[in-house]
Amino acid sequence: MIIKHESEVPYQKVEDPKAQNVYIKWLIGKDSPAPHFHLRQLQVMPRGHTPLHQHPYEHEVYILRGQGMLVREGGTVSLEPGTFALIPPDVKHQFRNPTAEVLEFLCLIPKM
């Protein structure tokens, strides 16, 4: 069992050259005993974005604070606190923050 406060886990800068001003903390990550899933918390700083990317696994996202956009095949969707999304495998997507406030969200992915 793991029980912690998120403030105990430091953010790390996302080093992907296609990301701009994105930070991640692995709340339940690669070094945990979790058998099936990883839980991450991300911050997209003002005018930042994740890479436009796709991968062979689904992930679930829950917006904690801030405003932003989820760019996906077929258009763009606005994000605000309380918004959640299921992103299916192999769907291109990107999180963008065009605002002056931080966009923060939780992201659940399968353990690889």
Order of helices and strands: EEEEEEEEE
Silhouette:
globular
Number of helices: 0
**C-alpha Rg, in Å?**
14 Å
Gap between N and C termini, in Å?
20 Å
Q: Based on DSSP secondary structure assignment, what is the total number of beta strands?
A: 9
Mean pLDDT: 96
Into which percent range does the helicity of residues fall?
Answer: under 10%
For the biggest sheet, the summary is:
6 strands, antiparallel
Strand order of the largest sheet: 1-2-3-9-4-7
- Low-pLDDT segments, ≥5 res: none
Strand content is over 45%
Helix/strand-derived category reads mainly beta
Written overview of the protein:
The protein is mainly β and 112 residues long. The protein has a domain at 9-42 and 98-112. It is built from no helices and nine strands. The strands form two sheets. A six-stranded antiparallel beta sheet has the order 1-2-3-9-4-7, with no helix packed on it. A three-stranded antiparallel beta sheet has the order 6-5-8, with no helix packed on it. The protein is globular, with a radius of gyration of 14 Å.
Please outline the helices and strands.
Elements: E1 12-13, E2 20-28, E3 37-49, E4 59-65, E5 68-72, E6 75-79, E7 84-87, E8 93-96, E9 103-110
Antiparallel strand pairs: 1-2, 2-3, 3-9, 4-7, 4-9, 5-6, 5-8
